[in-house]
Amino acid sequence: MGSCWKPSAVDDGPRRGGSEASGRVDGLLWYKDLGQHAWGEFSMAVIQANSVLEDQSQIESGPLSSTKSGPVGTFVGVYDGHGGSEASTYVNENLFCNLQRIAAEHRAISEHVIQKAYLATEENFLSMVKKKWLNKPQIASAGTCCLVGILCNGLLYTANVGDSRVVLGKIETATKEVIAVQLSTEHNASIESVRDELKSIHPYDPKIVVLRQRVWRVKGLIQVTRSLGDAYLKNAEFNREPLPLKFRLPEPFLKPILIPNRPYRNQEAVDIVNSYPRKGIARKLVEAALQEAAKKREVRYSDLRKIERGVRRHFHDDISVVVVFLSTRLKGGATPRRTQFSLKPNI
To answer: Name one GO molecular function term (predicted).
Structure first.
């Protein structure tokens, strides 16, 4: 099986990475109700809220290496961009290719290979920012969370920087209940242990995390504490003109503020997946998230669906959901492996 799916901006339509028919568009919603990957089925959905879609996602199934004799499996990536779409788009177009190249060099998929792929993607993107930022300074403020799941040789690897989340639905043998198991750790300043980590890294900066409008933010600017991109918070050379003033810090910094390395309740998501047919399940999860957003903002769901992109961002962010079903031959013996990254760019 070849490359599967890469939805792009809703107004551009979905991009096909393989031979299957494209997904469908319903207003600001893009969805693929059900498709096949090497180990089972999948469902995808993306709802746009920003003027420009900042989320990217992909499923690649087949060779995980650039050589024919390399490992085979399924790669899933979800990239929640912020400050623009440049970083998430770059990761969507380059991370998997970097993984294939490095997996070919090592002839395997491993935590080390995944980490090297993240590092290569980060370093290449920051190099591009350096070349372009005088003419396009806004690119220095573009960053993205990067959540990846890889199924290979009976193992499930998860790797994450940012605050996206991987949740596994596990059937309890005795009770037949489906239990939610979170497989990734979030890097968000709203979490006390994450704030403590930042304070320990920056002991001489009393404003490394700031509570603003009841939300904790790094330097009062951003909630995520690890990301790919966000050059303006990693390299002091971008903390000056021509970067727009709203992104510039009033004081210089000597070390990266961000390092690359709870949008949805776990059990509720797993219960929805377990209670409805597989076909269209990603779209069902997006709809559930929109229902929550409408309830929180005290508007009707039907009215929320009519709000245009850009204005919609005041009610919810771009939302991407990928549901991957594992066949029984993998469920019995699959072992999750979690990889946490703390990567530092060269300065």
So the answer is: protein serine/threonine phosphatase activity
